[in-house]
Amino acid sequence: MLLTISTTHSPATDLGFLLHKNPAKVQSFSLPVGHAHVFYPRADAEQCTFAMMIEVDPVALVRGSGGERSDFSLRQYVNDRPYAASSFFSVALSKVLSSALAGKSSTHDELSNSPIPLEATISVLPCRGGEKLLHELFAPLGYEISAVRHTLDDTFPDWGESSYFTVSLRHCIPLKDLLTHLYVLVPVLDNDKHYWVGSDEVDKLLRRGAGWLDTHPAREMITLRYLKHQRSLVRFALSRLIPEEEDIEDEESESLAEEKVPTLHEERISAVFDLLKASGASRVLDLGCGEGRLLKLLLKDKQFEEIVGVDVSIRALEIASSRLHFEKLPDKVRKRITLRHGSLLYCDRKLEGFDAAAVVEVIEHLDPPRLNSFERTVFEFAKPKLVVITTPNVEYNVKFENLAVGNFRHGDHRFEWSRAEFLAWGTAVAERYGYALEVLPLGPEDEVVGAPSQMGVFRR
Ligand code: SAH
Hints:
The protein is α/β, with parallel strands linked by helices. The chain folds into two domains: 194 residues, 2-Layer Sandwich (c-terminal autoproteolytic domain of nucleoporin nup98); 193 residues, Rossmann fold (3-Layer(aba) Sandwich), CATH 3.40.50. The chain has 17 helices and 14 strands. The strands form two sheets. It has a seven-stranded antiparallel beta sheet with strand order 2-3-4-1-5-7-6. Strand 11, helix 16 and strand 12 form a beta-alpha-beta unit. Helix 3 packs antiparallel against helix 7 and helix 12 crosses helix 13. The chain is globular and about 70 Å long. Bound molecules: S-adenosyl-L-homocysteine (SAH).
């Protein structure tokens, strides 16, 4: 998947400041399912071209797949995701170019909000709906569009045309507008969003769409496809799209504050962090640390003098390590943290003697017959004074409209418990190992089905 953005603005190398990427450097960023490499094929005063190549790891994609399932199981391995621009493209944009997307620049603030001549080329863009759709989406925004359609297979011309195009879009607009249009419209063209849509997607769409989507002639179709045909979400989004005058400003200032609205997972991590902090713990374990979201918070706080993250997935640990910029940490900071490859199903003496342990959204990944081993590893051998365990509340699943009845929230979940089931398990564990248990809701609570997640706080 390749995106290039060129400008002939003078001096053209200002593009580097707007993108917050140095034209002299090749840089790589890890993504949830692959890597993005950024570099400049050309950077001189007349023209500057930025390139972002996204490598999607199709196997990581299968492992991390959300609710999306297909009858054609080979589709998990035989698909266009590694090379076609899709919602991963938007994920990469928001991760690698977040400041540019928000129009932030400490050195070139004025330029980041000024129109400059820009040309974006996407090497393989799936246009489900053909070239006509491409024009319907980009022409009203003022783009000059050129598109070359690819045949399905040059060796077999009879097979006809594919739905893939190489697309170039030219316009004189602020860079942040171009990026925002791509962020919303590429997944709309692809029409195959990779993760299931929750209500926070509505907020994302409205934030990114502020200032242009409300007047776009294809706004219904964009909203429908972006929100992947979830009728009530679409209605909700459309009802919020044409705001009162004064609301428009709110939406815009919100877009600058981007990522400020916490996701459920951020809420969960910060609730766990607050508990660890309030307990006064200084030596802490993050068991099943995954990609290191909690570790990152812990590392920022000097109260936590020794932090150990454990995970069974090497890939997750690699991502954690790059997210923490492990290699670049000053010695003093790096000494405080260790990443360990290991399974929580086996006791490990290195986990003994800690003040507290966090186990965030991990137990539901364990086979139920193995839970007993997990309990012994954590409560009998490691036995920290405080253990905080979070897990989904399955009762809340009815609120996720596109999660089919009986399906779990994640392909790798082995079970999801109701509030009563979690309480029963926790109470038995607490009694067996001499802990006191308190169970708390996590996330916005519904009167009937409770909160989306639940948290057991075990104290010894
Ligand atoms: N706690 C992290 C990650 C949750 S995802 C967060 O909240 O962001 C669940 C994690 O548990 C995955 O990273 C998975 O690799 C890990 N995991 C699953 N089984 C495990 C086991 N037996 N031992 C250690 N980690 C395990």
